[in-house]
């Protein structure tokens, strides 16, 4: 799915634009959570964020950079993994995985550089692999995720849609 940037009417003189993700317009006047809730491609992620109790955190001022796995990314996990992770007894593990997808600060795709090491909110690192406008992330276990839709700007950060769930080492 390709990102489509469309102009939106905003305050006089202000330039506001959105990005179409999962059939919904993601706009800079909404926070990361409110934008994600509108995306049909992120229902699994939204459910997981709710199960982990991270909604209020991701609605806070931030700023955050979120690498947001699409539903298809969760579908790549072994059968039953998501169901197991969202169970109350696995909240700590789910929280660890989800916070591994969040980096403090607002980093747009043009600010990410090849070989750059990002320290996640979870505490471990991701490595940026960049070639031209293509951005990939290498996780602690050597897994790779490709940014499929970059620069979904929200009021409290930026989201980059990815095609694979990133996994921390521990």
Please, could you describe this protein's structure?
This protein has 170 residues and is of the alpha+beta class. The chain contains 6 helices and 10 strands, in the order βββαααβαααββββββ. The strands form 2 sheets. The protein has a 7-stranded mixed sheet with strand order 5-4-10-9-8-7-6. Helix 2 packs across helix 6.
Please describe the topology of this protein.
Elements: E1 5-8, E2 16-21, E3 24-26, H1 32-37, H2 43-52, H3 55-59, E4 64-69, H4 71-75, H5 81-85, H6 91-99, E5 102-104, E6 117-119, E7 125-131, E8 134-138, E9 144-154, E10 157-162
Parallel strand pairs: 4-10
Antiparallel strand pairs: 1-2, 2-3, 4-5, 6-7, 7-8, 8-9, 9-10
Helix pairs in contact: 2-6
Give me a quick take on this structure.
The protein is of the alpha+beta class and 170 residues long.
């Amino acid at each position: 799915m390709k990102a489509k940037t469309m102009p939106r009417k905003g305050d006089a003189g202000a330039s506001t634009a959105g990005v179409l993700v999962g059939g919904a317009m993601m706009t800079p006047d909404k926070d990361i959570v409110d934008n994600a809730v509108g995306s049909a491609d992120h229902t699994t992620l939204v459910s997981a964020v709710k199960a982990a109790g991270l909604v209020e955190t991701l609605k806070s001022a931030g700023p955050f950079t979120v690498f947001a796995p699409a539903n298809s990314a969760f579908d790549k996990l072994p059968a039953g993994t998501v169901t197991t992770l969202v169970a109350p007894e696995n909240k700590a593990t789910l929280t660890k995985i989800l916070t591994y997808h969040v980096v403090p600060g607002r980093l747009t795709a043009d600010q990410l550089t090849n070989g750059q090491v990002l320290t996640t909110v979870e505490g471990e690192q991701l490595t940026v692999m960049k070639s031209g406008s293509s951005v990939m992330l290498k996780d602690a276990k050597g897994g790779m995720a490709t940014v499929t839709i970059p620069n979904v700007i929200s009021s409290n950060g930026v989201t980059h849609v990815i095609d694979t769930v990133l996994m921390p080492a521990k």
